[in-house]
Specification:
The protein has helices at 7-25, 28-36, 44-53, 60-67, 71-83, 105-125, 131-161, and strands spanning 87-92, 95-103. It is mostly helical. It has one domain: Winged helix-like DNA-binding domain superfamily/Winged helix DNA-binding domain (Arc Repressor Mutant, subunit A, Orthogonal Bundle). A hairpin with a 2-residue loop joins strand 1 (87-92) and strand 2 (95-103). The longest helix is centred in the C-terminal third of the chain and has 31 residues, at 131-161. Residues 151-189 are annotated as: Disordered. One of its GO terms (molecular function) is DNA binding. Residues 9-146 form the HTH marR-type domain.
Length: 189
């Protein structure tokens, strides 16, 4: 017999599933990038955002770890983004044999356009909410994402220590719905 799941946990899981499904069903990513005028696929957006949030160019491997995706995925996306003019490769100051990847001017402008488009959509969807309600939601969502990331890291470490095979990155490879910023913790609680 399994333990009874608290009703608040059931409602949280249900709400998260509804949001993820709704964003997918209504193709919100596609609408956001079209409105932003940035022709990139869903998998490219978290890479662009992570590069924008970093203080400088990154090694592709660091980017893969930050986004919890496989390195070949990052390499393919970076090649596409470089061809489109959104990223540029620069020498690694710590190891001249390696390259780092950073946003070009076009890449920075693309990220700002995507962010502005997403913010407009959210603002319109939550127009009936008070500023205090939106602020509370932002704090709780950031806290939830931070806690999910911490729990996932701890679970992965426990699984690895127990000899369980690594389940790999999430099937989605990172999406706007799951972790909008691809950030490493906001520190806001």
């Amino acid at each position: 017999m399994s333990a009874r799941v608290p009703s608040d946990i059931v409602e949280i899981e249900r709400a998260i599933s509804r949001v993820a499904h709704m964003l997918t069903r209504f193709r919100q990513h596609d609408r956001t990038v079209v409105a932003a005028g940035v022709p990139v696929d869903r998998a490219a957006v978290p890479l662009l955002r992570a590069l924008a949030e970093n203080e400088g160019p990154m090694r592709p491997g660091e980017l893969a770890v930050r986004l919890a995706v496989e390195a070949p995925h990052v390499t393919r996306q970076l090649q596409r983004l470089e061809r489109a003019g959104y990223v540029e490769r620069v020498p690694d100051p710590d190891d001249r044999r390696c390259l780092r990847v950073g946003l070009s001017g076009s890449g920075r402008a693309a990220v700002e356009s995507i962010r502005a488009s997403g913010r407009r959509w959210i603002g319109e969807a939550l127009a009936a909410w008070s500023p205090a309600e939106r602020e509370r939601l932002a704090g709780l969502v950031n806290r939830m994402v931070d806690d999910f990331e911490s729990h996932s890291a701890a679970t992965s470490a426990t699984d690895s220590a127990a000899g369980d095979p690594d389940p790999g990155p999430p099937a989605s490879g990172g999406t706007e719905a799951a972790a909008p910023t691809g950030r490493a913790g906001s520190g806001r609680h």
